[in-house]
Amino acid sequence: MTESLGWNWSMEMLLWLLPIVFFLHDGEEIATMERWVRSNKDNPSLSSISSVRIRWDKNLTFSFTFAVLVLGLVLSSITWHAAVRYEAAGSTPFLYAGFVAVFLLDGIKHVGATMLTRKYTPGVITAALLEIPFGAYALYNLFHLKMIDLPALALGLAIAVPVTLFLVWSGLTLGMRLAPVRNMPFE
Question: Less packed terminus of the chain by CB within 10 Å, N or C?
């Protein structure tokens, strides 16, 4: 069954690429987010899309990293469950597929935002090079190997989207509360 994946990748390897690619992508965001947010803080569209009140006296990198760790732990847990289920039953839970689809959509969002603004946005490089190719490849293989179908993907997405939004919001909110105050101006 795994020979149809190409590149001699096993399904377990493909499954575990989700948290690996997630942390690589979010590493780029962590490294570039604070400078980008601070340089765009007067942009009205930035404040309108954020549901978390930004405290400019706080270390934004800390709060964003905290949110990434929260989401990353959940993604790693879902991946572990998918790998165990695959090993035991040869199938993959719909929730894993839903999170892969959210990941793919996030990559498309990053590339779209960069195209709209015509300038770099945090995460666009790894979105284009890792997130979109991985998401498309993983979903293609999950469908091709008949491990998921369209109703399963729709159910996974219906659960993964609000869970992701909640985890990001709660991670950022709690991270902002725990973040240390900046000692010196950022520039």
Answer: C
